[in-house]
Amino acid sequence: MIRAGVVLLTTNGLAAIERVRDGMTYYTLPGGGVEDGETPQEAAVRETHEELGLIVRVDGLVALVNFRGSTQYYYRAEVLGGQFGTGTGEELSSPATSKAGTYQPVWLDERQLAVRDVRPASIAQALAAAPDPDRLVKEWFSTPLVVDEV
């Protein structure tokens, strides 16, 4: 399975999806599966709109994560329009009691990245350790972060 998502840093923090499932709370970067006939970049833009309600432009691969047999592409994103929190993706309308749990768009302050369960962990840990996370993401343009997570 191929998944595509975004690393969206603004003055509000890092855009994430708060997931509550099976009694656990964790955070994922916005994104989802790449559909037939779609590039990973197109999927990242579509998923960001569905999950966050934002129209974004992706301008570079910043991380490639291999996780449990799937390849995940993460792109740096810039907001062009839309309103945060107005996503209409199917997962956002699922009831709190569904097996999928809940999905809630949130902004995570950079200080929260080291203490919250943010996935992929490798991206969150790198951003948390960086003195200037935005600069780090820009550096990943020339050499994307490549990791294997378990």
From TrEMBL:
Residues 1-143 form the Nudix hydrolase domain. Keywords: Hydrolase. It holds the Pfam family NUDIX. It comes from the Bacteria. The keyword Hydrolase applies. InterPro entries: Nudix_hydrolase, NUDIX_hydrolase-like_dom_sf, NUDIX_hydrolase_CS, NUDIX_hydrolase_dom. Its cofactor is Mg(2+). The keyword Membrane does not apply. Belongs to the Nudix hydrolase family. This is NUDIX domain-containing protein.
